[in-house]
Amino acid sequence: MSFVPGIGLVRGMALTLRRFFEPKATIRYPEVKAPIAPKNRGRLQLLYDEHGALKCETCFQCAQACPIECIDMGGTDTRSRFAVHWGPAETYAERREESALRRSGRTVPDPSSASFAPIDLRQVDEILDAHDHDPRHLIGMLEEIQEAYGFLPVAALKHLSFSTGAWYAMVYGTASYYRQFRFEAPEAAAVHAGAAAGQARAEAPSAARERRPSEAAFLTALDASLGLGAADGPAAGGAGPA
Amino acid sequence: MSVVGASWQRMSLTGRILAIAVPILVAVAVLGLLGVVLAGPIVAAFLGDNVPLVRFAAAVGGILVLTIPTAFIVIYMELKVIARMNLRIGPDRVGPFGTAMSVVHGLKFVGKEDFTPTGVDVQVFTMAPVVVFLATVMTMVVIPFAPGLFGLDLNIGVLYLFAISGLTVVGLLMGGWASFNKYSLLGGLRAAAQMVSYEIPLTLSVVGVVLLAGTMSLNQIVLGQSGSFVDWYIWKQPLAFLIFFIAGTAEANRSPFDFSEADQEIVAGFATEYSGMRFGFFFFAEYVNVFVMSALIVTFFVGGWTAPIAWPWPVDLSAVDPLGLGVGLLLLIAIGPVVGTIVCAVPFWLASRFSTLQALVLGFVVFNVLAILAVMGWAFISFDWVVGLAWFFAKTYAFIFVFVWMRGSFPRVRIDQLMGLAWKWLLPAALLNIFVTASAVLILNR
Questions:
Q1: The whole model's pTM is what?
Q2: Which of A213, B9, B30, B239 can pair with A192 through a Cys bridge, CB separation 3.0 to 4.6 Å?
Q3: SS3 helix, strand, coil % of chain A, rounded to 5?
């Protein structure tokens, strides 16, 4: 092969001369169009560098740009610190809108029927009649509903909003602002909080934790995951015993 | 408003231009005719007294004009040939098969801003492309294109050739120095170092040819190779041919030795600060230089304008004298095209796929092609210089094709490899070639 000096030059030139006469790969685009299926979007492929490491830097630009939301990414960031997730859902809230979901043929979640349990609404209707469906009596109505049910069921709030014409955001905001209102039954909350918090926190249960048992459970779990263990929550762990 | 003003107001733009231009043209034509009639004999006598001067002026003018289509064709070849070697088809939008592409390139250079950066030495900066271009063009004066078709038959043609082509270095250094930019200066120095180094083996390799031919006149060197292709100096001087080819490639700044503007690696070298037509002239010169190098290879080694084999069936058309027809010739000129067009249109008309008008247009085109072919064939048979020119250009463009082919094939060498090749291999080989050739001439002639 390389016994003759300079044979490489000749072979290189022979190659280019062969190429010179071969059929050409160019497609004269506006006149000639390549036979490409209308559904073709090319091939999606992740590339590897010369060390075999994935070249993808998890920048999510492809997921953001994908027109049909088929790219949905999860992974770690470039320094392997955080688990990150990014997809069109995070980028484009409008793609989760009902019309977009309907157009893309997906099931449409109905928050007004699916997210809360139905209840017997007769007591609510009586209370509303007593207050003449007047949204200005919102706090009074809410207090009576809580008296009747023991807590504020979401279905009741929805019904209140629907019947009085007050925005649900306003009803919910009012209910969540005042401390006397609670959204879960008190006995369930006590059991839940007791089971989750254990013995150590029995001395100083704050009023808020009593009132919001699921939040209390979440905070306890958070304490545990942060290594604060048996301490009494973030305040006790950070600034000394309460 | 006067009558003149009213009619001026009514005229369209074209009419106004014509109303101004036509009287001027008429006046110029009348004055020109008067000048020819009155001063014609004097000018003719002056020209007749100074035939060498006229011949030289005509040659220089012809060569300057020749550079334009030459550069365009070389650029087009470069675009198209390398494209085909890359399995592309290259330019095909501008003109038929993209042939007008290089013209558009030239127009682009003219249309660009010709920028003069702050701090440059304006005179030198402007003169540098001119020097490079003229150094290239002036070498063409001594190249014999065909028997009797050369600018000057200098008896020191080879010396003149290398002296003038050495001026290119001056132009490159001027451009690099005057640009007021250290990178331009470095680029200029690189280019100058390369060209100076390769001038030496280039010149020394031709010494063998000069020894064989016994003359430094390029025309005489070509005549020394007349006969058939076995008389070409490439067979007697294969080593010199190889050296000349390699050194010529480097001298013309062609790949794989294109260091002065390695387009993929450095920012145009000495031409960094240039733009517009001043930049264009550098590249104009480069492409003309490719033509010159190929022409020199053809002249020195491949027999110049001589045919590779003598045409075995000589045709003598001197018996055919169209002037002998007298008035018949005028009639032939008047009627011939019409009859020819109609005759050529008849097959198309009979094919009945075309209307009469279409058939006539096609017939006209076909007749023109046939007539041009006939005239070219007649000229080829009748005139020595047409044959010579055809062979010269065929050989030259074959070598230009090889240059372009090499550019499409080879990677660029390193600058130290470039210098090492020139000084360690080509120079000793050229000296060896001279020694062997001189010994052979001495021994065989005695």
A1: 0.65
A2: A213
A3: 50, 5, 45
